Amino acid sequence: MMYCPLPNCFIIIIELQLNYFSNTCSIYHLQDLTSTLLSSLKQPDMINFLSNLQTEEHNFVEEFYSANHAVTREIPTSKSLSGIEVRLSNITIIDNKTPKVFPFPGLAKVYLITLAISDVEQGPISFDLHGFERVDDGDKLSVDRVLFSWKPKDENDDIPSQTHIFCSLIKCKQRLRNVAKIMQEAKDDEQFKNLTSKLSTLVKSASNLSAITSLTLELAGIVGKFLGTVDDKPLLTVFQSFTDLNGDYDRTGKNAKTFQNKYASLDLSITIRDKTREDQLKENNILTGEEV
Question: pTM for this structure?
Answer without folding.
Answer: 0.74
